[in-house]
Structures are given as C-alpha cells and as structure tokens.
Amino acid sequence: MSGDHHHEPSFIRKYVFSVDHKVIGVQYGITALSFLFLGFCLMMLMRWQLAYPGEKMPYIGNIFGEAAMPGGVMLPEFYNSLGAMHGTIMIFLGVVPLLVGAFGNYVMPLQIGAPDMAFPKLNMMSYWVYFVGGVVMITSFFVPGGAANSGWTSYPPLSDIATAGQTWWLFGMVCLITSSLLGSVNFIVTIIQLRVEGLTMFRLPFFVWAQLITSFLLLLAFPPLEAAGVLQLMDRLAGTSFFLPEGLVVSGVLQTQISGGGSPLLWQHLFWFLAHPEVYVLILPALGIVAEVIANNTRKPLWGYRAMIYSTIFLGFMSFIVWAHHMFMTGMGTKISAFFATTTMIISIPSVVILTALVISLYQGAIRFTVPMLFALAFLPMFAIGGLTGLPLGLPAADIHLHDTYYVIGHFHYVVAPGTIFAIFAGIYFWYPKVTGRMLNSTLGYIHFFFSFIFINIVFMPMFWQGMAGVSRRLYNQTVYAHGDAVQSLTVMSSWGAWMLGLAQIPFIINFFISRFAGKKVSNNPWHATTLEWLAPSPPPHGNFETVPVVYRGPYEYSVPGASEDFNPQHVTTEACSSVS
Amino acid sequence: MSDAHADVSKHVKAYIAVFATLAVLTIITVWASTWHLSHPMAIAVALAIASVKATLVAMIFMHLKWEKAGNIWFVIVLTVFFFVVLVSIPALMHSDRPLGTVFSSWG
Amino acid sequence: MNRSRIIGIAAALLVGVCLIAPSIVLGQTEAPAVSGNAIDGDYGYGLPPMVSKDGQRVDDLIIIVHWFMSALFMGWAIFFVYCLMRFRARAGHKAAYDPIKAKVSKYSEIGVAAFEAFLLIGLSMPIWAATKSEPPPETEATHVRVVAEQFQWNFHYPGADGKFGKTAADLVDTVDNPLGLDPNDPAAEDDVYATELHLPVNKPVICDLTSKDVIHSFSLTVMRVKQDVIPGMRIPVWFTPVKEGRYEVACAQLCGNNHYSMRAEMVIEDDASFATWLEEVGIVEEFDEDELD
Amino acid sequence: MSAEVLPYTIKPHPVTGLYNGKFGVWLFLASEVMLFGALFSTYIFLRIGAPETGPAAWPSGEETHLSWKIGGLNTLILILSSVTMVLAWVQFKMDNFGKGRLYLAITAILAIAFVAIKFKFEYAHKFHMDIVPSTSVFFAIYYTMTGLHALHIIGGVVVICYFIGPGAKLWDQNREYYTNRIECTGLYWHFVDLVWIFLFPILYLL
Q1: Interchain CB distance below 8 Å, B105 and C210
Q2: Region for residue B36 given its phi and psi (left: phi exceeds 0; alpha: psi -120 to 50; beta: otherwise)
Q3: In chain A, what are the domains?
Q4: Counting beta carbons within 10 angstroms of the beta carbon of residue A382, is it exposed (0 to 12), middle (13 to 18) or buried (19 or more)?
Q5: 3-state DSSP: chain D helix, strand, coil percent, rounded to 5?
Q6: Nearest CA to CA, how far is D165 from chain B (Å)?
Q7: pLDDT tens digit sequence for A151-207
Q8: Higher confidence at residue A146 or residue D63?
Q9: Cβ contacts (< 8 Å) between A181 and chain D: which residues?
Q10: B98: which chain A residues are within 8 Å (Cβ-Cβ)?
Q11: C95 found inside a domain
Q12: What letters, b where the CB count within 10 A reaches 16 and e where it falls short, cover C255-268?
C-alpha cells in the first residue's frame, strides 16, 4: 500500500473498493438515496390499499404477481411486508447510512482537517457490509412468502412463526448492525485523534459533535439488537424458545416442538434498547446539518453553541434510559412507568434547548433564503411538531388512547420525514458543490422545496386526526372499524399527498443528475463559509488538503466587527482576516 | 508506548502473580459452589469472585493499571454504566406489573 | 361533539386549517363500513365517543396537553416568522456578531419543564395508578376472561358459580373447545363462551387478557382502554361502561396477516338483558357440545 | 490511503496518549461489552421469569449436565493463554522476536485446545445425549453464549495465526507498528478471557 501514491490506482481500487473517505461517502450516498427512493415507493404502494381498500391498483397492479397482488388487489401479507420493509429500509438502509455513512464520511474528515478516516480499510469494509445487508434485504422480497411481514419492530412470537423472509431480515440486520459498529468505531477515533492543530473540541463544527455523539449511540446501542437478532435466529433456525412461553396454540395447534420458558417481552427490551437511541441517531446528525446551514445563511454565529453541545451530550446519554416508553402498554406497573415517563419528560428539555438555540440564531441575522437554507428553516417547525406531539405519547395515561395509533405514525414521521429528510436535502444542496465542483440549480431547488413542503404536510398532518380518532396503525383496511371509517377521507387525502410528494421529487432527481455535468462551476468556497471543508478544493483531491491547515478560531465566526469580510474562516489568521480590504 | 524495557520486564512478575491468583480464584469459586449456600448468596459469592478476576485481567493484562489515557477510562465508565442499565432494568420490570398479573396464559 | 371540535381546532392551529379542505374534496369516494351491525356513537375527526366512567380523565389530559402544545408552538412560530421577515438579507442590512442576551429562552425552558412535571405528576400518574393498581372490588365487578388468537377475540364468562373453569393448552380444539376448558373441572360446567363481548352497564368490569399465540392488543377505543395481550401472561384491565350501545373491540398490535380483521363487537346493556343474553349463549353452547358428542 | 500519511497510526497522539488502533480496539470492546451484556441480560431475565418448579424451571447442579471439571479446565487454559499473550507482547517490546512468536504460538495452541475441548467433550457429548439448544431455555442460552464466545475465540486464533505467519513480515518493516498490533490483539484476547470468567460460574456453577 505504501507505494500507492506514485501511480494511479486501478479503476476498481479507485471507485469500487476505494479506501478514500470521499469515494466511500459518495458510494454510501448513492446507495442510500436509492434505498430511500425504494422505501418511498413501497409506501406509495401501501397508500393505494389504505385509500382504496380492496380495489384493483391501476396501471401497475398486475406486475407484482399472483402471490402478492392477485388480480391487482393487494393481499394483507404483501401489505404487511411493504410496511415492515418500508420501515426497515427507510431507517437502516436509507436515513442512517445517508446521515452517518454519506454526510459523516464525506464531510466530517474535511471539517476536522484530516486527510482521511482513521481506519480507511475498515471504512471500506463498513460500506460493503452495509451493501451486502441491503442486497439481503432486497432479495428477501423474492423468497417464498415474501419479505419480512411482522413490522420493522419484528415482535415475537409473530416474527418467530413468520415466513422465511423474517430469517433474511435478521441476516440483513446483522450485516447492517455490523456495518454501523465498524463505522462508529472509525468515526469516534477519527474525531478524537485526527483533528488538526488548533481545532479543540469546542472549535468543532456542531455537525462534527453531532456525529461524535451519534457514533457513541451506535456503538453502545446497536450490539443489544445484534444479540437479539442472534437470539431470534436461534428461535427460528435452532428451535429455541427465547421469546416463546409455554403453551402456545397457533391456529388451534399446540406447539409441542418448542420447550417454552421464554418471554416475548425480552425482545422488546433488547429491541428498544437500540431503537430509542436509534431515534437520536436519526435526528442528531440532521440537527448538525441544519446548524451548519443556518449559521452559514444567517451570517451570524450560532446562538448558544456550547449549550447546544451540552444538550446533545445530555440527549445522547438520556436516550439510553427512556426505551420502555415504547412499552407502556405491555403491562407495566406504576413504578417503572413513572421512571420511564420521567426520563422521557427530562429528555424533551435538551431538545427544546437545541431548537430554541437554532431559532434565536436567526434573530439579528441577515438571512439568505438559499435552497439549503429553506430546507433547514422548514426543518425547524416540522421538528417542533414532531417533538411536541411526542409529549402526549410520553405521558403514560394519554398514551393509553394514542398508543399504536396513527398519532404515533404522524409523530415520528414529522421527526424523520419533514424533519430529518429535509435536513438531508439541505445537506445535499449545501455540500453538492463541494462534492462535484458544481452547484445544483436553484430554480429546480425552489420548486422541489415548495412542493415537498406542502405535500409532506398533507401526508402527515391528517395522521394526527386519525390517531386522535383512535385508528390503529398497520391496518390493512381501517374501514372495518366505525372510528376508522369515519376518518377514511383523511387517509385518502394523505395518500394523494404521498403520490404528489413523489412527483415533487422529480425536479430534484433531474437536478441531481443534470447538475453533475451542467451545473454552474464553483470555487472552493461558494457559500462564503468558515469551516475547513471549504478550504479544500471542490472536489477535494485524494488526501484532501494541499497543506495541512491550522485552526485559529471557532467554527461560526461570521460578521465579526472589524473584519474585512463577513466571514472569518477557521484556518485564516486574525491578521489576514482584517488586513485585506 | 511510554513504558521502557525495564518497566515491561517488571510487569512480567505481575503477570505471573496474577495468573496464580486467577487459578486459585477459579478453584475457590468451584469449591464455593459446594458450600450449599442459599441461592442469592451463592450467586453473590460467584459473581463477586468473577468480578475480582475480571478486574485483575482488566487492570494487569489489559494494562489499565498503567493506563493514563482519559478517553479509555471515559469509554469504560460509560460502557459499564450502560451495561448495568441493560442487565438490571429489564429484570426490575419483571416485578412491577399491573396488579393481578399472572405469569401464565392457562390455568 | 364540542370536545372533539376543541381538539380539532387546537391541533389545526399547528399548520393551518386550510389543509382540511383537500380532504373533503378527495374523501368523497369512501368505502362503506364492512361491519354488519350498526355501531353506536358519533365518530368523526376528533376524539371518538367516550362511554366509560374514568375515560374522561384521559381525554382531559389529552386536551390539556394539546392546548399546551399549541400555545408553545404558536409562540415559537410567531417568533420564527418574525425573524424570517425582519432579518432577511437585503441591501444595507448586516448581521450582528454579538449574541443577544435572551433570558426569555431560559425562563420559557424552565416553564416548559415545570408544566411537563405538572402533566406527569399531577395528571398522568394518578390515572395510570388507577388503571394499573386500583382494581374495583371483585364482588361488585363483572369478570370476563379475554382470550386472543389470530384473528379472533374469545370471551369466557364464569357463569352462575362465578368461578372460571380450569383451562389447559393441550385441551384446545378450534371447534369444540376454543378455550381449552377442562371437562373434569366442576367449575367449568356452567362457563359461557362467546365471541361478542356483552357487559352490564354501570358496573365495573374486570377483563383478564390472555393470548393463545402472538401478541395482540385489547383496544376499547370508546372506553379509553388499551392493553397489550402478551402470551405467557394474564394481565387484567378494568373499566366501568356508562352508556348502553353496541361498540367495537379492536386489536391494536400487528398480529399477522389478517390483523385488520381482528374485530369483535361489544354490547353494553342493562342488567336484565345481560342476564338473558348470558343464559341464551350458555344454552346454545351446551346444545352445540351435545350435538358434537 | 497509505499508513504513513495518516497521523497517529503508530505513534501515540500527544494529547490523548493513544495511537489510533488502540483507541479503536477499546471502542470495539465497548460494543462487545454491550453485545454480551444483552446476552447476560437475557440470562437474568429468563432466569428470573422461570417458574420455581415444573419442566420449565431453571436447572441446577446435575440437571445442567455441565461438568465443572471440563469448564474449570477450560477456564485455566484460557487464563494461561492470556498470560502467554501478554508475555508475547513483552518479548516483542524487548525486541525478542523469536521468543515473542513462540509465546504467540503457545497462545494459539491453548486457544485451539479450548475450542477442541469445548466441541469434543461438551457439545458433541451433549448432542450425543440429545441435548440440543431447543431442549430448554437453559440450554438455549448455554449454547448461544458459549457458541458466540467460541466464535470469538476462533476469530482470535485466526488473528494470532496471521501475526505468527504472514503478518510477521510487518516486524521487519516497522517493529513498533507490529508490537502495537500485538498489543491490540492482546486487548481483544484478554477481553474474551474476561467474558469466559463470567460465563463459567453462571452456566456451570449456579
């Protein structure tokens, strides 16, 4: 390896099995965006069945085969597969790989002035293990019985007795978890060890902090799910009873082949021990992106930078001790529920602090309404709605009515869809010029933004009313219930919103590919930003920086009085900032 | 890698001593299982001995005794805390159920 | 319903009432309800009808929380929009470097924390304690065992002797003995099996929930009762119906392919009708058994 | 990316006092603690939930069909292998490549002995008696925990053999780098030993 920089590596080493964090970041980005699109398509299919239950799907109804959609009408098992795989793909194959694998991988080493990640080969391995996990998940659609259909939460005993797709799901998850673990080790070591001279922890961009905390969450929360996955595999393949009690009678047949003695709740503990921190894995890097974009486009330092960091650390820590608020309905006494409801209320405070800091950062700024800024700004109220609607769900008594209804769906989608995914779009528009050397077209960007913003609210806002009316989630056909039938019109509205939202992504897709070749060429620092990634050329070469930078100041020194420009980059000495006029 | 050669060879004695201690503790823990202690007591004794052994391995073999890097200590403390949460809270929840809950579907 | 209006308006303020409009236009082609019997109550966009003695406390909590959320969001949004208009980039406008000394944010955060503490300790915890650790006296309550299976609710009444017969997993027979009742147990003789949940009005009810196969969730939306049914556990829930009528029992936890169809009906009726029904169902049950033997 | 370009691959960072690999291994071990932590949690959860009597009751003593003699022997073997592992590192540190490699080889042999005993005298024996993971929850957790642990041992053996064989070339190129890698391998190895120290009493003795 040591002689590599003397000659050009082969195409395969350079673009396929590359160890360069930027190539891996782009690989992650492309793969994860594809999965995001796939997950979205699955949801659009589901929305047909929800809006028009039992009706033949027009145009494309016949391509899914007799096993899934006989006569173009969706079967409940296919609907459940779509639901489970939508969740899995969106979270584990789409959003997390985008936030951490793509943005984290590409931007974080640049922001800390590092030539690469600390363990480049591990980084490559992490991507390929993720890729294998993705392939396994996709393949599972084609096994007999279809893909996993027990929900993305895969609660046993249902998942223990489910069709073969569940086993594939578990193998896929083990791959994805392993990939995340490798990545998180790499991220933490890189952030701690490879910062350039002068870049102290409190001069790090907030995005890097968010990545650091996120990596700790992945590192410590994912292994229990890996263990749980192994246990469920044992249940399915070796006939053990980790999650199965004695005396199960499935379809009238006593299950004598199992020993019993297990507990279905064990899975839920291990699952949610991961899956609550996972929520913060989905949101913290998004907050990081939003903070970067807001600071850059208000031309003003972030308000309460340190408070935001402390809040993030606190969030990360607390996220490990709130998991059982997903389990209030599993038969929980007063003491434990009081404990978890209290920690849940406590964890809402740092979120409020971060959101408040971001909004106050707007005050007395000079706000440029660029496309990334619009997405970042839209993120704020969407995240606020998502966060606030978590409040009644965190109160055990209110949760009695709202648990497992559409209210929950609305709540977490507001956090991750118009929340995190808007942040992802902000990040794409913001860093695209760094990655490609060309700008994304802003007219198409504005169209993309405004239609996405309107339609995404039409998709998710009705869900709060549906949930309030008591409609359960994961229903193949809600009209069988009087309270579901009464709000069916909202479902229709939501479905149309989803399909329109799909159309609204067309400008983005066009923009994404065309601008790669036809976009306006840019210099190193098109946004007049301060952090180190904008010092490197666009796109940065192998090794990132021509000379190793030295950092002189904090990350968001905009509009400093007496400076010649309205931004003082981290790597420019104070004298140089004020001398040029 | 601050420790010089002399330091390292001094450690060797410690390693041998730790090995002897671990071997003895293994024998004790087996012996203790024949004492016919009450169940909680037997668990406490066995886990206490195991913890001592684990601490010895971590401190001496894994060089934590000589470890000055704060980051490693931070990671260890954090992990141990979450480990305790992970093993204790699910077990605690077992005892706090709605009044009248029975752990059997049939009967 | 006035209450559902309040909720509707409160939540609508979150992004604007205008989003309702498309739903009215697009929602005209809705499918008819599948259920055979007419379900009582006025169902709409807000909270569904509420017919239990203590359910109002849950509703009150939900309403208070939503007013709180709306107030918080409105205050926050007004500031947000003000910033966007007032501090937009334009010629002659420059961003200020120095941070503002905003004490307001600190006080509002403390206020939020305090109100959340009130919601939790003052409102939520007492309700939760009542629903989990303060059962009605056994002697006054109607006792029912609820046995969930894919994809059906089974209801088991103790009969005249007030005692449930023994059940065992190996005795289950989908046709003859869906509950797995022990024929040798004298307490089982007068037990009643039904697939419709009938309950007397204005009397507390205790339902013991068990599952034969997977996790289900026993959801009585109109009673504001929900409890997961976990195999290997028998978990009680209790409530007091206060209004006669025909309502629905739903499964609220994904339990397999036909999860959506795991629906039963619940009839709240006066004592006399309940007693008559119990007798009729009991006779039918015995008759069936004789015939099959 | 070649190793020389990245800072602190070999030399410790002046502030943190760590080279990248060592910090990375510690983080990896942290995730391993949580992995086995989940299994320990499972063990406790299932054991607490087990009924006092009946077929599902937790087995004790003879009922476990586990021999403390074999378990104890394996414990000693594993502890010994930990000592030889750390001694190997000492020898590399003192520039004695030959001796260090010998200790590594002993470690690998001990580890293989551990796995061989595990498979030959425990798993095979039990399979012969028709005791399989599905027999009871106890055996389910027994096979899962020891199986996962055995996989870790096998992984360790592979790494150690690599450093005895093809990986040893690194010694000629950069002694410090090689010694660092042995240190990291050692950390992992001691951790595997540490897990066994807990597995032995909870499965064989309690």
Answers
A1: yes
A2: left
A3: 18-243+261-579 (1.20.210.10)
A4: buried
A5: 80, 0, 20
A6: 24
A7: 999 999 999 999 999 999 999 999 999 999 999 999 999 999 999 999 999 999 999
A8: A146
A9: 28, 31
A10: 331-333
A11: no
A12: bbbebbebbbbbbb
Supply the pTM of this predicted model: 0.93
φ, ψ (nearest 5 deg) of residue C72: -60, -45
CA distance D119 to C149: 42
Q: Is the pLDDT of residue C5 over 80?
A: no
* Gap from C211 CA to chain B (nearest CA, Å): 7
Q: Which chains touch D (3 or more CB pairs under 8 A)?
A: A, B
> Alpha-carbon distance A251 to C174, whole Å?
8
- The tokens for A73 are 């009408």
Residue listed under structure tokens 């899995």: A88
Question: Does C175 map to a domain?
Answer: yes
For residue D64, is pLDDT > 90?
no
Identify the pLDDT of residue C29. Answer: 43
- Please indicate, yes or no, whether residues C192 and C281 belong to a single structural domain of this protein: yes
Structural domain includes residue B57: yes
- Residue A327 contacts residue A394 (beta carbons within 8 Å): no
Cis, bond preceding C151 (omega within 30 deg of 0): yes
Contact across the interface for B72 and D26, Cβ inside 8 Å = yes
**Which residues form the domain of D133?**
71-205
DSSP SS3 for A469? coil
Residue D179 lies in a domain: yes
By the CB < 8 Å criterion, does B69 face chain A?
no
Q: Is residue D52 part of a domain?
A: no
Beta-carbon pairs below 8 A across chains B and D: 132
Mark whether C47 and C148 lie in a shared domain. Answer: no
Tell me which residue in C133, C168, C212 faces B99 most closely, judged by beta carbons: C133
Residue C152 belongs to what domain range? 142-292
In a domain, D186, yes or no: yes
**Closest residue in C to A49 (Cα–Cα):** C31
Domain membership of residue D5 (yes or no) is no
Rounded CA gap, C64 and A25, in Å? 46
- Position B96 confidence tier, pLDDT thresholds 50, 70, 90: confident
The CA-atom distances, in angstroms, between A572 and each of A114, A115, A532 are: 17, 19, 10
Burial class (CB in 10 A: 0-12, 13-18, 19+), C139: exposed
Q: Which residue has the tokens 């004490």?
A: C103
State the average pLDDT for chain A: 93
State how far residue D107 is from chain A, nearest Cα, in angstroms: 26
Q: Quick check: C105 and A358 in contact, CB under 8 A?
A: no
CA distances, B48 to each of A229, B44, B53, B55 (Å): 30, 6, 9, 10
DSSP structure class, residue A421:
I
For the stretch A320-346, pLDDT in tens is 999 999 999 998 889 999 999 999 999
* Number of domains present in the structure of chain B: 1
Task: Kindly calculate the radius of gyration of chain C based on its CA atoms and give it in whole angstroms.
Answer: 26
Does any CB of chain A come closer than 8 Å to the CB of residue C35?
yes
b (16+ CB within 10 A) / e for A327-356: bbbbbbbbebbbbbbbbbbbbbbbbbbbbb
Least confident window among A369-373, C27-31, D48-52? C27-31
A520: left (phi over 0), alpha (psi -120 to 50) or beta: beta
Give the helix, strand, coil percentages of chain C, each rounded to 5. Answer: 40, 20, 35
Q: Could you tell me the two tokens for A424?
A: 């992802």
- The phi, psi pair for A54, rounded to 5°, reads 75, 0
pLDDT band of residue B49 (cuts 50, 70, 90) is very high
Number of domain units in chain C: 2
Judge whether C96 lies within some domain. Answer: no
| Total residue length of chain A | 581
CATH number of the domain at D158, please: 1.20.120.80
Share of chain A above pLDDT 90, in %: 86
